[in-house]
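We emphasize that the prediction below concerns an isolated chain of 196 residues; any contacts that depend on oligomerization or on bound cofactors are therefore not represented. The input was used exactly as deposited, without trimming of termini.
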Amino acid sequence: MTNKTSFGTRLFVSNPGPRNTALNWNGSPKDEFYPYAGAFRNAAATLVKTLDLDRMARSDFDACPVVFLYRHALELMMKAIITGDGGKFLRSEPKAKSIYKTHSLSELLAVVFEIIEAVGPSENFVGDDTPNVTDIRSFVEELDAIDPGSYSFRYPVKPDGSGSVERQMTFSVVSFAERIDTVLECILTRLPLRFR
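Result of the prediction step, given as a token string:
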């Protein structure tokens, strides 16, 4: 017999325990960008593994949460680097409000590359199969052009009622997942653990 949730109880409670999730438990939410990024990335990877993506037409809409989760993970990871110890390597400290407000992947990537340059040379990342800075920038700019405000894969329409993506936009969600995972890994492997 399973325990049923009582709808008479409160949804959010203040008693952490083994069956309750605790967020912002350390009282320093800006330090949680990286764990949030990891959680969104793990959720996206789980969907890619479990859904029948790229195989059946009825699964087309399943691509939306995958792209949104991966895109959000990338955004949060870059914000973690910038607002964390990586920010100490910038010529001028970024304004926290502008970093927290922006959803522009291209803007965030430019700041992250500035940090990577300050930490060490970034002409190439690691290995022959690894994309270089130009490849990563190109991928991020393409994603940013399609989804500039992080809404294209969350809603079918823009606030003006037009489509959030172009008609018949076609892509391989599995290939997208592989490429964005590579981008995430490349950026992470270029920065010491203390920046995350």
